[in-house]
Design goal:
By secondary structure, this protein is mainly beta. The protein contains 1 helix and 11 strands, in the order H-E-E-E-E-E-E-E-E-E-E-E. Strand 10 and strand 11 form a beta hairpin. Bound molecules: copper (II) ion.
Length: 166
Amino acid sequence: MRLKPLLAFAALALLALIAGPALADSHQVTAGDLVISSRVVRASIGRSPNTAAYMTIANRGAAPDRLMSASCACAETVEIHVMQEMNGMMMMDDAGPMVVPAHGSVDFRPGGRHLMLNGLKERLTDGGEQEITLVFEHAGPVTASFHIRAKVPLSAQPSRQQPPKH
Ligand SMILES: [Cu+2]
C-alpha cells in the first residue's frame, strides 16, 4: 500500500508551503524577554559607505536589559546612534549601551535612534534581507534578519514628515 506514505509526503510538502512564507515573513524575533520587530535596514545609497538600520525592541520582562553592541557581516562596524537637534542642526551621537526598560520598548526610527552600519562591504539592495547580530546584556546575542528597503517608513503609521537622509 503506497498511498499512505505518498499522502504523508504530500501533507508535509503542503505544510512546508504554508510554513515557508510565514517563517520568511515573521516580524518577531525573540531573545529571552525581548521581542525585536519592524526590522528594516536602508538600502545602500550610491557609493555611500554607510547606512542605518531600524527596529523596535520590546521588553516583556520585569527587569531592564541593555543593547550593548551590534554587528553585521556586511559592515566594518555597527554603532548605536541617536539623532538629536542641536542649535537647529541634526547631529548624530553615540547612544550605546541602550537601555530597554522593563515592560517597555525602544524604537529605532529615521530621525532618531538607529544602528549605524559603517564601512559597508557589499551593496544592500532594496527587497533583500540582511542579518544583523544584536548583543544584549541579559538576553545575550541574537541574530535577526532585517528587510532591506530603499524607503524606510518613519513609523508603523503613515507620516507626512520627510524622512531624513539617513
Ligand atoms: Cu548614525
